[in-house]
Design a protein that fits this description.
Helix content: 55-70%
Oligomer: single chain
Order of helices and strands: HHHHHHHH
Structural class: mainly alpha
Shape: globular
Distance between the termini: 34 Å
Number of helices: 8
Length: 185
């Protein structure tokens, strides 16, 4: 094994190959949690050095921030081993009780991440369309290129544009409010 791949023996049995796949998928899924927890620890203990550590580690800063945001939303005891990190990310913006309700449903029905996303979307569309929002965001002058870039990101996330914006703002607020010393980041 190296940083760029695995080399398998030609005498590898099917059972060994299958076990390796299971182990690799577990490592992949747990790495998002571990990196998120690592980032949280760095923010809490090494605020003056944490951005430097991220750069030295050579990992994408925004991806790590997303991992940390999800990890912050789920204490270790609330994380579902039978569900992926991505399942948790789908419900991370919800209130704790709602997170648990949706994760319970996903676990019991053995939903994929995409099915959980579909069920969440369906639930939102079933809500009363006449319900008025509790608050409106003021109009902001923004260059069209930026708006199109944001719309593309929302499409890639398979999220309606307004929901995507609210989710991004929720994550930014969580990051800002949880940072002990923002001037060091």
């Amino acid at each position: 094994m190296s940083r760029v791949g695995l080399r398998f023996s030609s005498s590898l049995t099917y059972d060994s190959w299958e076990r390796a796949g299971v182990q690799l998928s577990r490592i992949l899924d747990s790495s998002a949690w571990c990196l998120g927890d690592w980032l949280i620890c760095g923010q809490e203990n090494y605020a003056d050095r944490y951005v430097r550590a991220i750069k030295v580690a050579g990992l994408d800063y925004q991806t790590l921030r997303n991992y940390a945001w999800v990890a912050r939303r789920f204490e270790l005891s609330r994380r579902r081993e039978m569900l992926s990190f991505q399942h948790h990310a789908e419900v991370a913006a919800l209130a704790t009780a709602e997170q648990d309700r949706w994760l319970d449903r996903a676990e019991k029905a053995a939903w994929s991440r995409n099915e959980l996303r579909r069920q969440l979307r369906q639930s939102r569309s079933d809500e009363q369309p006449s319900a008025k929002p509790t608050s409106l965001i003021p109009r902001l002058p923004v260059a069209q290129e930026r708006v199109e870039r944001w719309r593309a990101a929302a499409r890639r996330s398979n999220d309606p544009f307004a929901n995507w914006i609210v989710g991004i703002l929720d994550r930014a607020a969580e990051d800002a409010l949880s940072a002990e010393s923002p001037q060091h980041e």
